[in-house]
Each structure stands twice: as C-alpha cells, then as structure tokens.
Write a structure and sequence with these properties.
8-stranded mixed beta sheet; alpha/beta; 2 domains; binds adenosine-5'-diphosphate; Nucleotidyltransferase, domain 5; 400 residues; 14 helices; 6-stranded mixed beta sheet; 37% helix
C-alpha cells in the first residue's frame, strides 16, 4: 500500500509518499509560503531532478490539491491515480490527554483536536486545516492522526505534574505533555533492533537534538519522562528557546525592560537558546565555526547546551536506575561531531565511553561507543515520516 504522509505548518507543508510493501520512499516535497505571495512547491522523486512549481496557493486546500496533482503527474508522479494512495497519515502536534497512540480520524477525533487548540495555538490549527483539506479532496481515503504528544502519555504522574496548585491541572490541563514523541519512539525502537534485544528489557535515553531539542527516558519500551513540558519551551537549551529557567526571571526582566504583553514569550521562544547566548546564530554550524575561531560566547553557548544534555542524561539514569543505551538523533545529534564529543566527555565512571574515531560520522546509523563501554552510544537518523506511515498502515489494516 502507498501511504501519503502530511505535516502541515501555518504557511508550509511537508509531504512524502512511501510504498509500505518495502517501506521505500517514492517521493517527498515541501510547499512554502501558503497564503503568501510567492507560493512554491518543491518536489523530489527518486532518480529525477528537483521539480519546482511556482504558482499562487491561497490556502492549505490549494496547496494539497497541487501536491496531489504532482503525485499523480505522469512524469513527476508516483501513482497513476489517487486510488493508489491507500491512506494518509497526518502529523498532529497536540492531542492533550486524549490519545496515547495514533488513531483513525473521525469527526469525534476532529472535535478532540479542536479542543486541544488551546494547548497548541500555533500548531494544531494548521494541522487541522490540512486534515480538512485532505478529507475534502480525498473523501474515500482513510486518514490517521499521529500525535507528537502521544508517546509520552505513559509517563507516571510524578513526571508530568507540576508543583503548582493542583487546580491548574484539573481546570486548565496544565501538565507536562512532551513533544517529538514520534521521533523518540522511532529511534528507541531502532536502538533495540540494533542491539538485538527486546525493547522491554532495555533502558534507553533518546536525545533528539535539532533546532528544537528534547531528551526522553524510555524504560522497558515506555516513556517514563521527557524534557519538554506543557509547551516545547521547557527542558534543553535549543536553537532559539531558553529551555529551563527560573520562572521568576520572567517577571523580573519584564519589569526591568518594561516589555509589552507577550514579548517575554517571544524572547524565550525566538531570541534565547544558543542564539541568545552567542548573539550570533541559532544554527549549530555557525556556532561551531565561531567557536573554532575563538569566539568566547559561541564557546559558552556550546558548553551551556552540552551541560544541559548531560544534566538530563544524569537525571534519567537516576530515574531509571541505569541506562543501557544513549541515542543521538536530529540535526545536531546526527551531525555535530564536536557536540557529541563534549556531551559524552568524562562520563566513564557512569559506564559511558565515546569512541572518538567512531564518532567521526554524520547522519548514519551506527554505534559510536567504545567496545568496552557498558552503555552503548548510538547514532540513529530519525525518520518521523516512516513512523507515521507505519502507524497509518497498521491502523488502516486493523480497520479492515
Ligand atoms: P528541526 O526539525 O527542529 O528544525 P533539525 O533536526 O532539522 O531541526 O535540525 C536542524 C539543526 O541541525 C540546524 O539548525 C543546525 O543547527 C543543526 N545541524 C545540521 N547540520 C549540522 C552539522 N553538520 N553540524 C552541526 N549542526 C548541524
């Protein structure tokens, strides 16, 4: 069966078509500037040059219509007609406490997602728009929702309850949800496969280090803790997000700088992280280059970032009473050799030994710990789209 995977942002949309008989990628693409002047669709099919379509796209329905036409195009396409697409998997950011796994999308699921928009006001509305547009254009094709939050729903209350008045949880659903769940799940399962052991026998710490970054503790196949919280702002230092800070700083800075309503939120999400510390860039490649050239604030940004990852690794080792594998994934985790080196330095008393030669690798599934390291360190490129397609296939097959 061919599965279309859709990931809708507010003005962009990413898609892939996978042949699930052999889990191969048939094509992928990106639509940018939806509803803005200069809309563009960039499509890549195996063995062909990149296809670029510049045409006005007023809304998500317009964009998806162009995606579908491209998918069945005689030259650029990968299917003769839409009937060949057996199902659509939609990435949805927030499902609150409603879903702990992927689900077949029905009207009641749509209602539940609408209810969660309060919790993810930037992300859920475009996700919902994308589903609605697909439903209109492909009314007979089953659709599945795959949620970023779902994998973390197994966390015990001590991991997800904040120590603030309990009514904020019961009245307003304020709790830790966690994000990047699809990625954490994918790499944890791959780690177990690579180690040749059932995931039910393993304790794994997954470090998803991208522009957004989070760490998860996965004990016997279920997530028991994760660093992102009520929103993706909590936890690690990120490209532009602060991660954990003393909440009192918010009111203090707001007063000192006489900031308007909402500005602190913008600062913590868009102007902090390694960008804020370095004053240079949110991109770790720029930070690395500047650090190598002797820029002290870039060096500090690297150290603060690494410190926080180490801090969570230590915390999760305590929470799980040990760890069998540490996984690095996403843009920084997969590519930043120097950062993995700093993170893993001087952890030998905890049984964690990085092999500096094996670590000299980017974007490839491999073991990077020394042979005598008690804890395996693994580099595993994430593949959220494949995970979404797998869930979609499983659910659609289960319905038949
Ligand atoms: P997201 O999906 O959160 O936008 P990604 O997982 O794609 O993020 O990661 C993007 C980030 O990965 C970039 O901002 C950059 O900092 C980092 N990155 C990509 N390639 C490299 C590299 N070769 N060395 C260091 N960092 C890299």
């Amino acid at each position: 069966m061919k599965v279309l995977v859709i990931n809708c942002g507010s003005s962009s949309l990413k898609y892939q078509v996978l042949e699930m008989d052999n889990e191969s990628l048939l094509c992928k693409g990106l639509v940018e500037r939806i509803g803005i002047e200069g809309s563009v669709l960039k499509h890549e099919k195996e063995g062909m040059d990149k296809f670029i379509l510049q045409t006005p796209m007023q809304d998500h329905k317009d964009a998806i219509e162009h995606v579908l036409n491209t998918i069945i195009d005689p030259v650029q396409g990968v299917a003769k007609s839409m009937d060949e697409i057996g199902a659509v998997g939609h990435r949805v950011v927030h499902a609150g406490e409603k879903y702990s796994s992927s689900v077949l999308i029905t009207e009641s699921v749509m209602d539940a997602l609408e209810e969660c928009t309060d919790l993810a006001p930037l992300h859920n509305p475009p996700n919902i728009l994308g589903i609605r547009a697909c439903q209109e254009l492909m009314p007979n094709t089953p659709m599945v929702g795959v949620f970023d939050t779902a994998y973390h729903q197994t966390m015990p209350p001590e991991s997800y309850i904040y120590a603030i008045p309990y009514e904020y949880y019961t009245n307003y659903k304020v709790r830790r949800y966690g994000f990047h769940g699809t990625s954490h799940k994918y790499v944890a399962n791959r780690a177990a496969e690579m180690m040749g052991q059932p995931i039910e026998e393993l304790k794994i710490i997954t470090c998803h280090l991208g522009n957004g970054a989070s760490v998860s503790a996965i004990k016997r196949g279920v997530c028991v803790d994760t660093s992102m919280g009520f929103t993706p702002l909590e936890g690690l230092v990120m490209g532009t997000r602060s991660g954990d800070i003393d909440p009192a700083i918010v009111t203090y800075i707001r007063q000192k700088e006489n900031l308007p309503q909402g500005e602190m939120n913008n600062i913590l999400n868009k102007k902090s992280g390694v960008l804020g510390i370095s004053g240079l860039s949110s991109d770790f490649r720029d930070i690395e280059k500047a650090a190598e050239e002797g820029d002290e604030r870039a060096q500090l940004a690297q150290r603060v970032f690494a410190h926080k990852v180490r801090f969570y690794i230590g915390a999760y080792m305590a929470e799980m009473n040990g760890v069998d594998a540490i996984v690095f994934t996403a843009g920084v985790g997969e590519n930043d050799i120097g950062m993995r080196d700093i993170i893993c330095q001087d952890l030998s008393n905890l049984g964690i030994r990085l092999d500096l030669i094996k670590n000299k690798v980017r974007g490839k599934e491999t073991v990077i710990s020394t042979d005598d390291s008690r804890v395996k360190i693994l580099l595993i490129p994430t593949n959220e789209e494949l995970m979404i397609a797998r869930d979609t296939l499983e659910i659609v097959n289960g319905e038949e």
